[in-house]
Design a protein that fits this description.
340 residues; alpha+beta; Uridine Diphospho-n-acetylenolpyruvylglucosamine Reductase, domain 2; four-stranded mixed sheet; 24% helix
């Protein structure tokens, strides 16, 4: 276990905001996870598990506690009948997992290509994109339970997945540290119809390869065109969640001319569309740039601190509510000192 002191959170997160963390511990084995939480308990300090930092925002005052980063890597594979079971360590970079699966012609996660982050974070917020989400193929997660101080396996149904949610970021937030995940995949192709933007790409480019590799290539190209690389431009991916509606609200929205996407996970409005309709596309707000091609993304061009981000967020959320009556919800989590 590597112990680091007074590390800037801005250096650990892709939005590049945040003051110093008292301790940053890097764990490379399950046993070190237990040791890390024991270290925090010894000094009576709060903890925050961190992955790649692509979906996390730091505050200027930093964190008077222990950030624990998963450095456990590796993928193992087992064939069971027509299915292939992959066990992936939580510190493995997620896109490497998708590439691994696609190279073996395994379907189930190809549309999740190019999502920045570590594998351990994937089930926490139930990552999803272009018609797939991790809940579709995840069999279980192996975790360290910080309450009972034991290791255990949580099955898919126990995680209570929904849109960008699981018990790991709601009712049991910060209780479990994800050691590894297990996926069940099979050879084949995604079923059509695909997500709207994927279908549009297929039509415009006369695309005929719908294998996992083919869909990965499509998604990679779409994301490269619309979404900035957080390494090159400070951002946190999609900053706002899409707006999910019940059937009555969806019908009312469509009557007002608001485009509603009807997917397998429910009826939703693209929050980027709402933001664009409010005139924010491409605008610079308090040092935060609303990405022109994907308005859900905020890029930190010149923000001097968290307050700039908060002002930009407030301005966007307020105007969208005033114009459409929908509250936008932030997707990235924040590292916050506990109230004393």
């Amino acid at each position: 276990m590597r112990v680091n002191e007074n590390i800037l959170i801005s250096s650990l997160t892709t939005m590049r905001l945040g003051g110093p963390a008292r301790y940053v511990l890097e764990v490379e084995t399950p046993e070190e996870v237990s040791d890390a939480y024991g270290f925090a308990e010894q000094f009576n300090l709060p903890t925050f598990p961190l992955g790649y930092g692509a979906n996390t925002i730091g505050h200027d005052e930093g964190f008077e506690g222990v950030i624990i980063i998963n450095r456990m890597g590796g993928i193992t594979e087992e064939k069971i009948g027509d299915e292939t079971v992959l066990k992936i360590m939580g510190g493995e970079y997620w896109d490497n997992v998708v590439e691994y699966a696609c190279n073996k012609n395994l379907t189930g996660i190809e549309a999740l290509s190019k999502i920045p982050g570590l594998t351990g974070s994937a089930p926490i917020q139930n990552i999803g994109a272009y018609g797939q989400e991790i809940a579709d193929t995840l069999e279980s997660v192996y975790v360290y339970d910080t309450v009972t101080k034991t290791f255990k396996t949580l099955k898919n149904e126990e995680l209570k997945f929904s849109y960008r949610k699981s018990i790991l970021n709601t009712t049991e937030k910060n209780r479990y540290f994800v050691i590894s995940i297990t996926l069940k995949l099979h050879e084949g192709e995604m079923a059509r119809p695909f997500y709207n933007s994927v279908e549009k790409f297929i039509e415009e480019n006369h695309w005929v390869d719908f294998s996992p590799k083919g869909i990965r290539e499509i998604v990679s190209r779409i994301r490269a065109d619309k979404l900035p690389d957080p390494i090159e431009k400070a951002s946190s991916g999609s900053f706002f969640k899409n707006v999910y509606l019940d059937k009555t609200s969806a019908e009312a929205a469509e009557e007002k001319g608001i485009p509603v996407y009807h997917g397998k996970d429910g009826d939703k409005i693209n929050s980027g569309w709402l933001i664009g309709q409010c005139g924010f596309s491409g605008k610079l707000l308090h040092g935060m740039r609303v990405n022109e091609k994907a308005n859900l993304v905020l890029i930190n061009e010149s923000a001097t601190g968290y307050d700039d981000l908060a002002k930009a967020r407030s301005e966007i959320v307020g105007k969208v509510y005033d114009k459409f009556g929908f509250w936008l919800e932030q997707e990235p989590v924040e590292i916050i000192n506990p109230k004393k």
